[in-house]
Design brief:
Low-confidence stretches: none
Radius of gyration: 27 Å
Order of helices and strands: HHEEHHHHHHHHHHHH
Mean pLDDT: 85
CATH superfamily of the domain at 78-258: MetI-like
Largest sheet: 2 strands, antiparallel
Helix content: over 70%
Strand content: under 5%
CATH architecture of the domain at 78-258: Orthogonal Bundle
Length: 308
Amino acid sequence: MSAIAELSRLSKSEGRKAPAKDNKAGHLFLLPWTIGLFLITLGPMAMSLYLSFTDYNLLQAPEFVGMENIERMFSDDRLHNSLRVTFTYVLVGVPLQLGVALGVAMLLDRGMRGLSFYRSIFYLPSMLGSSVAIAVLWKQIFGTTGLVNQLLGLVGIEGMGWISDPSTSLSSLILLNVWTFGSPMVIFLAGLRQIPVMYYEAASIDGATKWRQFVSITLPMLSPIIFFNLVLQVIGAFQNFTQAFIVSNGSGGPADSTMFFTLYLYQQGFKQFDMGYASAMAWLLVLIVGGFTALNFFVSKYWVFYDD
């Protein structure tokens, strides 16, 4: 017992004499990120939270007004309309986009020739979909004298102002969002390549149809990828701004049919110079996006399958 105690004492004494690790180099490399975190992210967020309780017009010092901005949101009809437009855009556009992305990914997964070329072509709209140039192009395509109406005219159908008509303007933007399916498609394609072929072979031997294989094998095995794409695309859809701004010339028209929440926030902050109210709206958007994300994570435990 004495020998064991002596060995234990020596090991402890050696551990105490071990030199402490020098983390100065690591902290130095992290310093730019840490500075950016406080100056570019946390600092502006804290300032925005304070401004949401003030009356601030960018020209005079903020005046604290308490809950006035929050109470104002309950009676703001244009804000309620912008929420309706945004929720419609998210709840319709995101499922359609993911459905198209999954369908194209399954076609490309068949091992066709020139796969890299087709994958790049399909991914290209995703890289440009939120840019000003693509929004301007979309405005020209669906304008009164745009490409869509010209094609309809060839078969004797009189076109309409797809973007200038309140009944179709939002649908045009949803279609633009669906068209930018490249990013989730590439992720779906990578996920499909990870599903073992033996599952499909066993199902074929048992007489399972292609649809049954899709429902019983592809969807469950791909559910973590679907969940990942769903969370990202929902967050991105709530933040959409450029498309609506360019197509409506910043007005959210016609008749506020493309007045996204972010566009209305921009108008309040940088056109009406009501930065206090705009800050309160920004935090409402944070709560909405956070709520949807938390809901997705909560519901995911009932349908997402993780193959260990």
